[in-house]
Amino acid sequence: LTWPIIPLILHLLQLQRTHKFLWFYIFSRATKISMEKVPVFIVGAGPSGLAAAACLTQVSIPYVIVEREDCSASLWRKRTYDRLKLHLPKEFCELPHMPYPSDTPTYIPKDLFVRYVDAYTEHFKICPKYMTSVQSAEHDEVSSCWIIMAHDQVTGLVTEYTARFLVVATGENSEGNIPQIAGIHDFTGDVIHSSSYKSWNNWEGKRVLVVGSGNSGMEIAYDLASHGVDTSIVIRSPFHVMTSGLIRLGMQLSKWNIPVKFVDFILVTLAYMWFGNLSKHGISRPNMGPLFLKARTGRSAVIDIGTVDLIKKNIIKVLGPVCCIKGSAVEFEDGKRDHFDSLVFATGYKSTANIWLKDGESMLNDKGMPKRDFPNHWKGENGIYCVGLAMRGLAGISYDAKMVAGDIKSIIDSMASF
């Protein structure tokens, strides 16, 4: 009985091999693969990647820069609210090797910053490969190079890049972070991240809860409430409230090498004189001073644009941490309960570098952020670098880009000397 079965098994095995070959053939035809070798590969064409490209151009080092979106600085163009301005004065927000025009306002609005980025890209002749996503990047010990697989989302072409140096410039704000709150998926109204918020126009007549009280949360709450939208805000942890003038004073004093603790003492004292005791309005102050806290944790002070006054007048209602959500009702940890039409989560962003980066553990932790503190955070092993991950804004980006380009230049020069 076994003999008739054997030819059948062999026939089935032959069909399986044929099918495997057929699928491999189809896959290889559908997925067109090319190969390219470059000295430096930059991932991301936001301000970080553009700054790295410009600094490499200054020292005559070729590079390739890819961007998964269809434009540079996509966060600024697509995922910021209309009223946004840079929170720091322009002298602290320049990209390397190109100052702002003399007639630029001190605090630069979003649209003007985007125009600056476009002029920067043109000035340094930066040509990102848009709509190109990095699928993987891993270090090859034999060749001492990074092997990067990049997918062109338009043509379907996959290119295997071999690069001696890899620059991670995808930023700390790669993807919006919405916390997992019990019942959030059953909420009956709108749930968005602050990156999708544009202006108050879309929220007229609704009861809105803004979750998060950083600069974005406080500005969105102000934008809503100042136009008559019924607005509440969740404040979960202490933070400093400053004016833009106070922050500018603090940064100028720091440039004169005045000790940070003394500068912080001045800022906190002046802020108390300006705003009064905010603890009775639900806003408590951290133990660390604003500049020291920023340097230690990356958490920025909130620069008030009028939100505090609306909170004091109870036009914006302050609520504590959220416990759970049931339908349209939001329950809070202190036992309060209220109904809302919409939730806006201004709860920050997260890095996505670890999704595609396979051998970056010498530089990045499990959250895709630098393991080492500033100013030693920007370099890992085997020719890997990061720009714009130190949570120090545009000034930090400029510092990183200059350090990375300088280090790559010194390595290439030392290799050429042998």
What does it look like?
Belongs to the FMO family. Helix content is 34%, strand content 21%. The chain is α/β, with parallel strands linked by helices and 418 residues long. The protein folds into two domains: 33-174 and 351-417, FAD/NAD(P)-binding domain (3-Layer(bba) Sandwich), CATH 3.50.50.60; 177-348, 3-Layer(bba) Sandwich (FAD/NAD(P)-binding domain). The strands form five sheets. Strands 1, 2, 3, 4, 5 and 18 form a six-stranded mixed β-sheet that branches. A five-stranded parallel β-sheet has the order 7-16-8-9-12. The chain has a three-stranded antiparallel β-sheet with strand order 13-14-15, with no helix packed on it.
- Work out the number of β strands: 18
Number of separate domains: 2
Uncertain regions spanning at least 5 consecutive residues: 15-30
CATH architecture identity of the largest domain:
3-Layer(bba) Sandwich
User: What's the average pLDDT?
Assistant: 91
Rg on CA atoms, Å: 26 Å
Task: Give a short account of the largest sheet.
Answer: 6 strands, mixed
N-to-C span: 74 Å
Proportion of residues in helical segments = 25-40%
Shape assignment: globular
**Helix/strand/pairing class, anyone?**
alpha/beta
Number of helices: 11
> What string gives the helices and strands in order?
HEHEHHEEEEEEHEEHHHEHEEEEEEHEH
CATH topology-level name of the largest domain: FAD/NAD(P)-binding domain
Within CATH, the superfamily of the largest domain carries the name FAD/NAD(P)-binding domain
Strand content bin: 15-25%
| The level-1 CATH class of the largest domain | Alpha Beta
